[in-house]
Specification:
Blueprint lengths: L11 H11 L4 H6 L3 H16 L5 H15 L2 H13 L4 H4 L13 H14 L7 H11 L1 H24 L31
Length: 195
């Protein structure tokens, strides 16, 4: 799949800032810049989401990548893994997120966070009272609210990217450990016991 609309011309300052931070411009922004109001609001909200700090960054990263793997957003997996490396997160774990159900590297809490992210992502959502309450007990109210809002935001981003035809830009190629590919075992229904 290729971008479904041509890349829009970004303002020079925005383009330069992206190149400084990522080494290139970001295709999702180039795709939505055809409507600068939408693009600017999305960028502003993304910056605000990045400032949230009630939830552990590793848990947020795993939740993001679990949603991206489920939705099929290769760009989000690519950038999520790259950002995990830049944040000093455990790459051995991050590389296994697409196959988290079959992998043995995750803690029980990490597994529950990814299960919750997937349960929020399916249609209709499959979040159970038991899963929600168990995470709430472990994380506390502020972090649970943040996790829920974060997963909702990631769903918007992943679905926007896939609908616009945005694909991986190769950011994760610089990571030492290759990113695992999603396997059929990773597609177990939300709420199923991990393998």
């Amino acid at each position: 799949m290729a971008l479904r609309l041509p890349k829009a011309q970004l303002p020079a300052e925005l383009s330069e800032n992206m190149i400084k931070g990522f080494g290139s411009t970001l295709e999702p922004v180039e795709a939505i810049w055809h409507n600068p109001g939408v693009a600017t609001a999305n960028l502003d909200f993304s910056r605000r989401v990045a400032e949230w700090d009630a939830l552990d960054e590793g848990l947020k990263s795993f939740a993001h990548m679990a949603v991206a793997a489920q939705v099929g957003c290769s760009w989000c997996l690519d950038i999520g893994y790259f950002q995990a490396q830049n944040q000093g997160l455990d790459l051995a774990k991050a590389s296994q997120v697409p196959n988290w159900r079959a992998s043995e590297v995750f803690t029980a809490l990490e597994r529950e966070v990814m299960e919750y992210a997937e349960a929020m992502t399916v249609t209709p959502p499959a979040v159970t009272d038991e899963l929600y309450d168990h995470l709430l007990d472990q994380l506390g109210a502020a972090a649970m609210v943040e996790l829920t809002a974060y997963v909702a935001f990631v769903n918007m981003a992943t679905r926007n990217n896939t609908a616009n035809g945005v694909r991986s830009q190769g950011f994760s190629d610089s990571c030492e450990i290759p990113l695992a590919r999603r396997t059929p075992a990773a597609d177990a229904p939300a709420g199923a016991s991990p393998a």
